[in-house]
Amino acid sequence: MANASSTDILIIGAGFSGMCAAILGREAGFSVQILEKGADVGGVWRENTYPGAACDVPWHLYSYSFFKEVIFSRPYPQQAELLSYQRDCAKHYGLYDCAKFGVEVASADWDETAAKWTVTDTAGQRYEARALISSVGLLSRPAWPNIPGRESFAGQQFHSAEWDHSVELKGKRVGVIGTGASAIQFIPEVAKEAGQLTVFQRSAPYCLPRFDEPYGPIKQWFFKHVPASDRPMRFGIWKFGETLAKTFDEGENRVSRVTRWATRKFLESQVKDPELRRKLTPNYEIGCKRILFTSNYYPTYERDNVQLHTDGIAKITEKGVMDKNGVEHEFDVLIMGTGFKATEYLAPMKIHGSAGKELHDTWGAKVGAYLGMAVPGFPNFFMMYGPNTNLGGNSIIFMIECQARYIVQALQALKGHKTINVRAEPFAAFNQEMQDRLQKMAWATGCTSWYQTADGYNPTNWPGPTAEYRERTASFDAADYELA
Description:
- By secondary structure, the chain is an alpha/beta fold.
- It has helices at residues 16-27, 44-47, 79-92, 183-193, 217-225, 231-244, 254-270, 274-279, 297-300, 359-363, 396-414, 424-438, 466-473, and strands spanning 5-12, 32-36, 99-101, 105-111, 116-121, 126-134, 156-159, 173-177, 196-200, 207-208, 292-293, 306-309, 313-316, 320-323, 328-330, 333-336, 350-352, 381-383, 420-422, 481-483.
- The radius of gyration is 23 Å and the shape is globular.
């Protein structure tokens, strides 16, 4: 086994959260090393290359507040532009100098005596650090549907998060399973190529329009040459997101009524056929699933080569899909648009803390972390985009910056000590508060979503406005931790 290299902070993952932690950590004077299993920075925006992949939050807010050197070509950046932004940011802050790519972490072990973490990758290489930050993200492991017979399909099949660009779709019979955030982006693009496209929908999403016209030369010049010109728009988008988040509050309120009305009017304006409109109308409380932004999804179903199927799937066969009415639909290609394993935090890594206790064993079925970042018994260890920090609205980049600043403060408090470990009391109180609040929100009204586990436990979402999270993480409180 190779000798271990050592650093102050070891970060697992080079997406938006890992990069942010590295930038602020280095600015605070810490030595940093990043381990990334992919070949470059980018995280979800490096991995997801499906046709039509784009952000559903405008770039003004879906970008770091401290790095605005890149000029985007449109309000909602597409995958290639976001990846380019991240690469430019990594170059600007010298992150390529401290990042090691093609390294997949297998395990991390806390050494009580040395007060260090030893991280081992899948090749057996070891790395040591005083502090460990997991930045592996929430949407990194594709969730394949548990449908009988999936392996029997004789055609080509792949998941949207692992798009197989070698598969020719032109003129083919294509089946898509799922109508979530990724699917509503790639379905319109696939429809342009496929000879026949059939979409199998379990439940219809609530949709709002995405106003995404490319910028003309005047706007691009303005953004480039007028410093901080994006600030008013950034603030306005953030405030809109804070308002939209009230849709998820307990019971019906003015915002949820207006949002539901807006989604209905949007559907009516884009789909004239009453039967098709009925199929595309959600049958659950607004906010229970993610509200999606699109302007080309609904019109896709009015194409002659596209069919929306809503009667359910019985099994996958050698030739295609058997629906619950016993009708077999034959396909050349099957595409799974079924999302990610969002509730399985940090899997498949094994994180061993004090006394060798494994993190997933500590959690059991109730995943949680203090402020989404720290777990008792795992000293000098923090998570970015951890439990209960995902958002139903607004920008996750806002949350990521809050977390990175808080973690840097915590590690500064570690100076002069060997360990920093969150106390059990604030950890337990915080997680109880999260679940008490979440059980009163739209996400708990009965729909099936990736926000919750099968038994209704919600380890993913933040139940309040982002301003509340910023306030609660603005100042590190050493009283919540044991410093030794």
